[in-house]
UniProtKB/TrEMBL annotation:
UniProt family annotation: Belongs to the RMDN family.
Location of the region described as Disordered in the Swiss-Prot/TrEMBL record: 83-153, 396-415
Keyword Nucleus: yes
Major localization class: cytoplasm
Keywords assigned: Coiled coil, Cytoplasm, Cytoskeleton, Membrane, Mitochondrion, Mitochondrion outer membrane, Nucleus, Transmembrane, Transmembrane helix
Annotated GO CC locations: mitochondrial outer membrane; mitotic spindle pole; nucleus; spindle microtubule
Coiled coil, from the record: 43-70
One GO molecular-function entry: microtubule binding
InterPro entries registered for this protein in UniProt: RMD1-3_a_helical_rpt (IPR049039), TPR-like_helical_dom_sf (IPR011990)
Protein name: Regulator of microtubule dynamics protein 3
Annotated Polar residues bias: 100-115
SUPFAM superfamilies, alphabetized: TPR-like
Amino acid sequence: MNYFSSCFLEAVPRALVPVTAGDGAVHTPLLVRDEQGDVLERLDVVLRNIAELRKEVEELRNSLQHLAVEIVGEVRSHLEETQKVTRRRRFPFPRERSDSTGSSSIYFTASSGAANTDDGESEGGYTTANAESDYDRESERESEEGEDEVSCETVRTVRRDSLDLVNEDETHLILDSSLEEGLGQLLQQADRLHDGDEQEKREGFQLLLNNKLAYADQKDFLWRLARAHSDMCDITEDADEKRSYASDGKEEIEVALQKWDRSAECHQWFAVLCGQLAEHESIQKRIQAGYVFKEHIDKAIELKPDDPKSYYLLGRWCYQVAHLGWLEKKTAAALFEAPPTATVQDALQNFLRVEELSPGFSKAGRVYIAKCYRDMGNNTAAVLWMNLASELPANTKEDAESERELEELRSVWEE
């Protein structure tokens, strides 16, 4: 007999009820001795049942905890498979346009709309191709938004249900581990698509958009999303679409910079998107964007001094500034106390630094080196770097432009 039962046994005899009213009332026990024992035995049975039930509840809780983890994993796998099918369905064939427009210098060119043939005012410009129609883009966006809402709501529902089944600390560990693993795979796929052709860049952009709600608070995801906007700005022909991609990408990377000011990639892609957006602005805003570009590229180099891309971008900026046209120089002098200054020698040093960090980094980079030597009057070195540039494939649209420019340089040299 347990402690509770013995206490009850001692208490029950004191429970008396009056048989008759008045001062002479006779009191009798509520239960007789045998009945008290029977009640105590039943209480013991109830207590044992409660203990067994508590054990079963704990076992059930543990089972549901593992089940919640499995459900989250299955939902994620299903979403990834759905996204693969969606990408294959959405991009069966690339679109092409026969018409194309010239691209002005990213930061300082004064021309608007028309093609610019002056070397000093068109270097580093972005030419684009294979744009999608407005109707197609709107239709795809509506479809993508619907898919995002359904997919993300499914994940949220599973996570809310699982939170009720596991402890708070265990929940964070489970979900953080799952999210981290999924994010790593997503970023690897995004990098691979970014290095691919235009079709793969479109797929990479869509892949990141589809996962924005799940990873919008991740630094490495956000700067890649901004990079994907830059890719879309590059490969799109329509001026309004180019401006829209650049503007949206700049907004994404601004959010990242507010949280991660010490990220070299965030500064780098903020600079790039500022330059792309400036192509569609007035000459004053393009000059202002040039200051912003230089500031953030310098910051990116400070934070990550072994990244060849930052030196390439800085070299291109220096080359453009060194070849500013008369109108840009006068405008800069009138608007700013200290107009931007750079020389061809500055540009050359940055391009050579790129080759030092990553030999053969880009065909365009070697063409720039050849042009720098040409401008400085060192024809022997210019020819050498022209030949070295010819050895590299044209992996990007900018490389393809540089290859055409390389042919023009050769023809001029032969004359």
